[in-house]
């Protein structure tokens, strides 16, 4: 009877954990900024940033200061980036080939931290954290 009790306790403690925050399999580690999933996370983060920004111009990444990956039940990407206002207005839908604002009165830069969870096997990307401050 004691064995059954111990086995039940182990099962309960394992399932209780899965309801909380995901288990970290590997903590954040630096990875190359040109890594394909980092690029995908950056693309997603900027799409999200531009969609929520009140600015009528789009912003794009000018520098990746830090890129890290953590493994949980997803692949989490910690991105520290410098972004700047482009000359493309949001309505154009174009933002890949946008030039940065050259007029110093129109220039605007932010330092942003994004944490994007990726489940490439499900084609799923989720914003976990977004924090920007004027650079």
UniProtKB/TrEMBL annotation:
<keyword id="KW-1015">Disulfide bond</keyword>
<dbReference type="InterPro" id="IPR000010">
    <property type="entry name" value="Cystatin_dom"/>
</dbReference>
<feature type="signal peptide">
    <location>
        <begin position="1"/>
        <end position="18"/>
    </location>
</feature>
<comment type="similarity">
    <text>Belongs to the cystatin family.</text>
</comment>
<dbReference type="GO" id="GO:0004869">
    <property type="term" value="F:cysteine-type endopeptidase inhibitor activity"/>
</dbReference>
<feature type="domain" description="Cystatin">
    <location>
        <begin position="23"/>
        <end position="131"/>
    </location>
</feature>
<keyword id="KW-0732">Signal</keyword>
<protein>
    <submittedName>
        <fullName>Cystatin-13</fullName>
    </submittedName>
</protein>
<dbReference type="InterPro" id="IPR052691">
    <property type="entry name" value="Sperm_Mat_Cystatin"/>
</dbReference>
<dbReference type="InterPro" id="IPR046350">
    <property type="entry name" value="Cystatin_sf"/>
</dbReference>
<dbReference type="Pfam" id="PF00031">
    <property type="entry name" value="Cystatin"/>
</dbReference>
